Amino acid sequence: MAKTTFWDIIEKTIEESQIPLTAKEIWEKANTLGTIGDYKSSGKTPWNTIAAYCYTDINRGGDNSMIIQISERPAKFFLRKLVDKLNIQEIPKESASVKKEKKEKKKFNERDLHTILVAYVYGDIHFKANLKTIYHENSLKGVKGLNKWLHPDLVGVYFPFNDYKAETLEIQNNLSITSIKLFSFEVKINLNFGNLRESYFQAVSNSSWANEGYLATLNIDDEPTFIDEVRRLNNAFGIGIIKLNPENIYESEILFPSRISSEIDWDTVNRLSTENSNFTDFLKLITEDCKLGKIKSQYDKVLTFEELAKYIDEKGINSLV
User: Which strands make up the sheet holding 181-191, listed edge to edge?
Assistant: First the structure.
């Protein structure tokens, strides 16, 4: 008996649904309707493969393709053979009550995500960094627009104290070399075509001074056209993208790595320190720990597993995932 293929899943799912679907909706409905058959996915994002199949069929088949694309953002697909039966007005939309319910579920704001980013960055092998929140409201008041996009949401520091032997640290000190790394983070709840450019260039503006700069988000549009645009921006400007996973914060991932700079932009560091007392405090903490040769200063608190789970539940951070 032939095994179920992606083509089977796409065709059967759309046939049963009778409405245009995004690639992710095709996968989700296939699991609900049973049209997934005996297919077993080993990948984390099988809907990306479905999207690739659809785009390939459309590009190669032209007017004879099995799949047609009904909309662009989000990209929704339908079967050419069923197009005569398609009634756009019959496509179900979210009711006002559903939209209201989603809005009511959102109990948290962007700053509430700082706590889970702090835990992730502290425990992740790439960073192993301590973070500190920068409160924009503590910045000096000046000419309107002067400090726009100047301050990142969080800054972080990696110390090599636990990774290098004392002799290695000693020789680095004598040679005026340091393995300390500085990080900068901008945080958004959602990242999609509606806010991508503003969010990304905000991160470019306030994070490019550091060794590594990142834009962290709870939800990111996974449409291939959107991901391609993020990849283009990442290639051009180097700000990395982090996808936070509130169900297991330690399974959050760097979708696109930051371009690593070996040099710190000290002019910008000096301006940040001049404009914001939180950033000045951050520099003082680093200086104190460097003198001690160990981390003793108080950065943003890293919650325990239990505290983190309770925090995420109380804030309703899972509600929009």
Answer: 130-133, 154-158, 181-191, 212-220, 240-243, 253-256
- The ranges assigned to domains in the chain are 6-93, 110-320
3-state secondary structure of 172: helix
Instruction: Tell me the pLDDT tens digit for each residue of 301-312.
Output: 999 888 998 999
The alpha carbon of residue 119 and the mean position of all alpha carbons in its chain are separated, in whole angstroms, by 15
Q: Work out the number of other CB atoms within 10 angstroms of the CB of residue 178.
A: 12
* 316, containing H or E segment: none
Count the Cβ atoms, other than its own, within 10 Å of residue 182: 21
Strand locations in 124-264 (E): 130-133, 154-158, 181-191, 212-220, 240-243, 253-256
pTM: 0.71
The Cα–Cα gap between 252 and 210 comes to 22
Helices (H) and strands (E) in the chain, counts: 11, 8
Task: Give the tens place of pLDDT for each residue, 17-27.
Answer: 989 998 889 99
Residue 128 backbone class (left: φ over 0; alpha: ψ -120 to 50; beta: rest): left
Which residue, among 116, 79, 210, has the nearest Cα to 157 in the 3D structure? Answer: 210
CA distance 222 to 229: 11
Cα 245 to Cα 46, 106, 113, 188: the distances in Å are: 18, 16, 11, 13
DSSP E strands in 17-153: the ranges are 67-72, 75-79, 130-133
**Per-residue tokens: 7:** 């083509």
Question: What is residue 174's predicted lDDT score, i.e. its pLDDT?
Answer: 61
Q: Encoding tokens for residue 75?
A: 């990209």
As a residue count, the chain comes to 321
What are the two backbone dihedrals, phi and then psi, of residue 265, each rounded to the nearest 5 degrees?
-80, 90
CATH topology of domain 6-93: Arc Repressor Mutant, subunit A (1.10.10)
